[in-house]
Task: structure prediction
Amino acid sequence: MKNTKNQLSVRDTVFVSHTNSSSAGHALSEDGGSPISAAKSRNGNKTLALGYRILLCALFALPLAAQVPTQYQAIYSNMSSQISAFQTTVNQNWNQVAHPVAWAPHLSGAESDQFTTLLAPGYYQQTVLTELQELQATGATAVTVHINFPILYQPFYTYENNPAQYAQFVAFYQQLISDVHARGMKLVVEALVSEALAGTQGAAFIPYYQSLDWNDYMNARAQNTVNVAQLIQPDYMSLICEPDSEATNALQPTEDSPSGAMQLLETDLAALQAANVTNVTIGAGAGTWIPSFTSYIQEFATTPINYIDMHIYPVNDNDLTNILTGSSIAQQAGLKIGVSENWPDKEADSELGTLDINTIDSRDVFSFWSPIDQAFMQAMVACAQYEQFLFDSPSFPEYWANYLDYNTYGGDSPTQLLPIAFAASAVANDDGTFTSTGQAFSTLLVGPDTIPPSTPPAPSASIIGAASVTLAWTPSTDNVGVAGYNIYRNGVIVAQDAISPYLDSNLTPGLTYAYNLSAFDVAENVSGISPVFNVTTINTTVPSVPANLAVTGITQNSVSLSWAPSVDSGGVGGYRVLKGTSRTNLQVVAPAVTTTSYIDSNVTPSTPYYYEVEAYNTNGINSAPGGMVTGTTLALPAPTNLAATAVSNTSISLAWTPSGGTDAPVGYRILKGSTPSALKIIVASNAGTTYTDTAVATKTTYYYEVEMVDSLGLTSVPSNMLTATTQANPTAQAPTGLAVTNVTNTQVVLTWNASTGADPIASYRVLRGTSPSSLATIASGVTATTYTNSNLTPATTYYYEIEAVDAKGLASPPCAIVMNTTLPLPQAPTGLTVTTNSKTSVTLNWNAPLGSDPAVSYKLYKGTSPTSLNPAATGLTATSYTDTKVGPSSTYYYDVIAMDANGQSSVASSQVSVTP
Result:
């Protein structure tokens, strides 16, 4: 950490949502390289040929001093010489065979000094996973994260009076190791102590450190280490890395000596052994700048650790060659080497130990340092492979994403620069863009990459708003890793984004947008463009008010409306029709009308109605209502010509003309009263246009009206009023002796005895029916006491009665009912045969029909096909007939029917055929 190098930067307090913010990142990216995107795929063990390393040396050639600000030229020149000399030393001794090192840049967003920021909603998804993807996209095969004491030490949360937080941090880091391993990567953990850096929450731990003595500190830190090993199970875990810085940060000066550091290390190792931790590779070490560096390494090498860890920051003096010294000590002890932190500090020899950490870190942010950073990374990559490191962890991958331009920001103070620099890096990470330094690191790890990512599928919309759309998509694949995606809106790139989802904002409500994607990697290879996905934003604009509302038609049962169409930027969804029987009680009666007209059929005749119309957009937002209109439905047409067709002392028969109009009547309602003003309903629904009222008294006047009833149960205005008076009781006696004579199949003759009464008998009425209860008058004004009833149906039973009518027109009671059944039709002839006499003559014979009404003649039918027979002979009285109107070699068909005395014919006989 060298006072801060293992701590989080200000950048990690800023996490940027996935929006169309790429322009901000690009504006701050100033290193001479174009910002690009990256996707992830591991390629950690790739061997780089010597010839390609020579190419890299040319690629990383340092710029002329004139390109560096004057105040930094001496530092720049010294660093260049130191790094170049170290690179030469490594190359002179290295056989150029690459070793499979785990390339593990720092995952700054997950450092424990962020403390409660790590638990903020959306932070893990938006910051940690985005940064993890961008690191993997460079070819990194592991990441390094600080899980410092006391972040996983449970008693600290009791001290903080917030015990629930412990489980939340455990869950955070368990999710992290799961996501790292799911990508095929490894996790390097530094389990050290926190530091009170600006932009972090490291200061929150200082009061707790102050509460601990040396023994409490060692035991508590050891338990934190055990918890990290057991709960998180990282692949590599460093227990001590910078004894000097840790002593200062933890307020435990005892650690700032080889003996004190050994005591702490042995406490950690004993706790791990007691907890039976065997599945984590353990290491410890020191910073190469520490005067007692060799002593620390020699002491630690005597313990049962697995590797020696080194932190590398200053390149001044012989600090870089201390790497080779530390590696030699480790190898002699049979230990591996790991470098969990390294980045070139930009300071002069005279400044060593005099500058605060913010000043040192603030110098890193400028783009003119890019060649130095690239040369340093190349030297460290070569050294890692030469010395066969377990892992190598660049500390500031922020500058792989973005630098600041010195001409723009060179006058800012360190406290101003760091927030700007790391906020810009966060934006660049979110966009998937890289500086030439980031591209160079990727090339060091995976070599030239010319293979583009796979074409992504069409995106989808996880959230649709009025002015924004959140896009999601299935990730593309790449031989190294996908760095990010170009977002196209309507065929134009509007943003770059590292991972799904992406928020596209500042859109117009109610418009349709076409989106598609292309994926790119760190080497600027771009995939094909995905299929288009169309999405319409939610329409929040208010449509214009419908104009020119008018009543265009009106009947008894409908009101027709029309209006001018409304307009809306996102499209009109439809219209709502409001209706009421007064101006103040309008209610929606048609909520989704898609045309500019409407017919209201839910109305009552003779009723005024009021209407308004509102427009709504595609999201259901209504306009104000248009101008109100009113219309009164027409009355239903009344029946006409109401009249009394028959009046007696016991009944009044009514008849009327049906109602007209568009709504056909389903019945009529009959009203009756003894005065014109007191009519009451006597029949609610009469099907026909006649009615006989028998609920009457003799010599009484009644008043009648009729109303039409339509299919909705509505009634018309009443018909004309009718006045009718019943007759007095008759004096005539009922006729007697009714008899039925001369019965045939179509006719009977009725006879009866004459009636008597106080008044002369003027005539008789004949009543008939097919049942005793259905008799109706078939003849009136009959003056004789006989009546012939013709045109009857054969074999049918009829019932008769007679009423006498006196000179006053009053009818007597009917006589007793008599019944009679008409004769049936004659039966068909039987036994029809045909005999050939010659070529031109045939004879037909048949039997007379049976039955009560004998045949008096026969009719013969003939034809040349079975279905087209015509009369050939009529009025035949014999049961045989010779037909001489035939010819040879032709077939003839015959049948015969019988005729009775009334001219009624039977059905045809069976058919015969003959060929003369």
Q: What stands out?
A: Confidence is low (pLDDT under 50) at residues 3-30, 32-66.
